[in-house]
C-alpha cells in the first residue's frame, strides 16, 4: 500500500484538491451547496490526478526517461518494487473509480458535466500518453493552467447546480499560476534528463533562464490577478488574505535561480506545491469571508 501511495505522488494531489474546493466555495456563497457533489468532485479529481501521475511513471520508464537514481519519481518501476504492467493497470483502475464519481456528477449536473468530465479525463491521459504527450512539449504548463487551474473550478461550481457564469472563469485564474509553476519547477529540475530522453519542455526549447523567468511570472500571476479581480468587484476585498503568502513566493523567486542540480531543485518543486496549497486555501477563505 505504501508503494501505491508513493506512486500517486501525494505532494502533487493538492493540485487537484484546491480547485475542487475553491469552485465549491464559489458556489456556496452563491447559495448552492450539497455534500454529495462536493465529495464526488473532490474524490474524482484526486483519483484522476493520482492516475495521471501513475501514467507518467509508466510512460517515462517505458521511454527510458526514468532510471535508478532519478530525482522526483516514485522509483517503483525502475527499482523493481512494482511491475510496469501493474502500474498501468493501477492507473486504469483509478480511472474506473473516477468514472463512478463522474457518473454520479453527470446525474446531478447533466450533459455539460459529461463533456467537461471527458475533457478532464482525456487531458489527464494525453498528458503522459499518446504519440506526442503534452508533458513532452512546451505547452504543458499552459495545459495545466487551463485544466487544473480553471476547468476543475468550473466543473466544481457547476455540479452544485449553480450553472456556468462567466465570472467563475475569471475568479479561477489566480489558481492557474501556482499550479503551472509546480510543473515548470519540475521541468527545470529535470532539464538535463528530459533533454537526454528527447523531451521538448519549455526550459529545453527556450533555455533555462527564460524558463526561470516564466516560473517567476507564474508566481507573480495570482497576486496580480487577485488584486485586479478585487478592484473590478469580481471577488470580495476579503480575498486580500492571500497576500501574506507572497513571502513564500519571494523565497521561491530566489531559490529557483540559485539552485541548478536536481537534488537542490526537488525541494523547490515541493515548496511550490505547498505555496499552491496555502494560496488556494487562503483564497478560498477570502471568498467565504466575503460571502
Short description:
The protein is mainly α. It has helices at residues 2-7, 14-29, 35-62, 84-109, 111-128, 140-162, 166-189, 191-196, 202-206, 208-231, 246-258, 262-290. Helix 7 (166-189) packs antiparallel against helix 10.
Describe it:
The chain contains 12 helices and no strands. The mean pLDDT is 88. The chain has a single domain, classed as Farnesyl Diphosphate Synthase (Orthogonal Bundle), CATH 1.10.600.
What order do the helices and strands come in, and which of them pair?
Layout: H1 2-7, H2 14-29, H3 35-62, H4 84-109, H5 111-128, H6 140-162, H7 166-189, H8 191-196, H9 202-206, H10 208-231, H11 246-258, H12 262-290
Head-to-tail CA distance between termini = 41 Å
CATH topology: Farnesyl Diphosphate Synthase
The CATH class label is Mainly Alpha
The oligomerization state is single chain
The proportion of residues forming helix, as a percent range, comes to over 70%
Main sheet properties:
none
State the CATH architecture. Orthogonal Bundle
| Computed Rg | 19 Å
Total number of helical segments? 12
Give the domain tally: 1
Question: Which keywords apply here?
Answer:
291 residues; mainly alpha; Farnesyl Diphosphate Synthase; 12 helices; 0% strand
Amino acid at each position: 500500500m505504501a508503494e501505491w501511495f508513493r506512486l500517486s505522488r501525494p505532494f502533487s494531489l493538492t493540485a487537484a484538491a484546491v480547485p475542487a474546493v475553491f469552485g465549491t466555495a464559489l458556489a456556496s456563497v452563491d447559495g448552492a451547496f450539497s455534500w454529495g457533489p462536493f465529495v464526488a468532485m473532490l474524490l474524482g479529481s484526486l483519483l484522476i490526478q493520482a492516475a495521471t501521475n501513475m501514467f507518467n511513471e509508466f510512460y517515462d520508464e517505458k521511454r527510458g526517461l526514468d532510471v535508478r537514481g532519478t530525482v522526483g519519481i516514485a522509483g517503483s518501476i525502475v527499482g523493481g518494487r512494482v511491475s510496469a504492467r501493474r502500474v498501468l493497470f493501477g492507473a486504469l483502475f483509478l480511472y474506473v473509480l473516477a468514472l463512478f464519481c463522474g457518473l454520479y456528477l453527470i446525474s446531478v449536473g447533466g450533459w455539460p458535466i459529461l463533456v467537461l468530465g471527458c475533457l478532464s479525463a482525456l487531458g489527464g491521459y494525453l498528458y503522459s500518453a499518446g504519440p506526442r504527450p503534452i508533458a513532452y512539449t512546451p505547452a504543458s504548463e499552459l495545459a495545466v493552467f487551463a485544466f487544473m487551474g480553471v476547468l476543475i473550478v468550473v466543473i466544481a461550481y457547476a455540479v452544485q447546480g449553480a450553472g456556468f457564469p462567466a465570472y467563475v472563469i475569471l475568479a479561477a485564474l489566480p489558481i492557474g499560476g501556482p499550479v503551472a509553476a509546480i510543473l515548470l519547477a519540475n521541468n527545470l529540475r529535470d532539464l538535463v534528463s528530459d533533454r537526454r530522453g528527447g523531451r521538448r519542455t519549455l526550459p529545453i526549447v527556450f533555455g533555462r533562464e527564460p524558463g526561470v523567468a516564466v516560473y517567476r511570472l507564474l508566481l507573480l500571476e495570482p497576486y496580480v490577478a487577485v488584486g485586479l479581480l478585487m478592484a473590478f468587484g469580481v471577488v470580495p476585498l476579503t480575498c486580500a488574505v492571500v497576500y501574506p503568502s507572497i513571502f513564500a513566493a519571494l523565497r521561491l523567486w530566489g531559490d529557483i535561480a540559485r539552485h541548478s542540480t536536481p537534488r537542490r531543485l526537488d525541494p523547490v518543486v515541493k515548496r511550490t506545491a505547498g505555496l499552491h496549497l496555502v494560496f488556494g486555501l487562503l483564497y478560498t477563505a477570502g471568498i467565504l469571508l466575503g460571502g
